[in-house]
Amino acid sequence: MSGSTIRGVLQTYWALAVANLAARLEGRQLLPRTDFTTADLRGELLIAAPPAKVYESLIDSAQASAWFGYPIGIEPWVGGRYAMGGFESGYAAKVVDLEPGRRMSIDWGPTGVTTWELAESQGKTKLTFVQSGFDEQNPPYAAWSGTVAGFGELVRFHELPDWQPIWLPDPTPVP
Predict the structure, then answer these.
(1) pLDDT at position 18, please?
(2) Nearest to 15 by CA among 158, 159, 142
(3) Are 145 and 10 in contact (CB under 8 A)?
(4) pLDDT of 5
(5) What is the pLDDT of residue 1?
(6) What single-letter DSSP state applies at residue 5?
(7) CA-based nearest residue to 148, from 15, 7, 6, 56
(8) How far apart are CA 114 and CA 132, in angstroms?
(9) Would you state the torsion angle of the CA atoms of residues 77, 80, 84, 88, taken in this order, to the nearest 10 degrees?
(10) What is the spatial distance between Cα 74 and Cα 79, in angstroms, rounded to a whole number?
(11) Which of 14-23, 53-62, 132-141 has the highest mean pLDDT?
(12) What's the CA gap between 31 and 23, in Å, rounded?
């Protein structure tokens, strides 16, 4: 994922391909593309759920770990940690902006800042997400593709009554 090899891009490319295959087979919207010709990393999704429920699933460690398919430790306050792999993973990004119920920004260091924002849209939730503040000569495509694939599962998490993740569970518990 560091960008030093193609492995991170390939890993998240396949995660995104599988997430899009699931979307296609279930008759859902396809996910935003990873455009390897631009450094503009932004996307939108509509989720058939109220913003409050979507917000909770984005800031609660247990729910986020379930739909993302990988342990995520989240301290949902400005200055809090956001740790892929859980808090014991050795690396945690920092929450740099939080508007409860609406928006969060996470600083990942060299790969930039991920920001997501929620808005009500005709009884659904519009999720807008952006990756910014990175070296535009070396966009974090691996991180971006992984984020998009994860958000595809977030849509399924909220929209399928008998939701089952498309990802195999990670046996590592999130503290």
Answers:
(1) 87
(2) 142
(3) no
(4) 66
(5) 44
(6) S
(7) 15
(8) 7
(9) -140
(10) 11
(11) 53-62
(12) 8
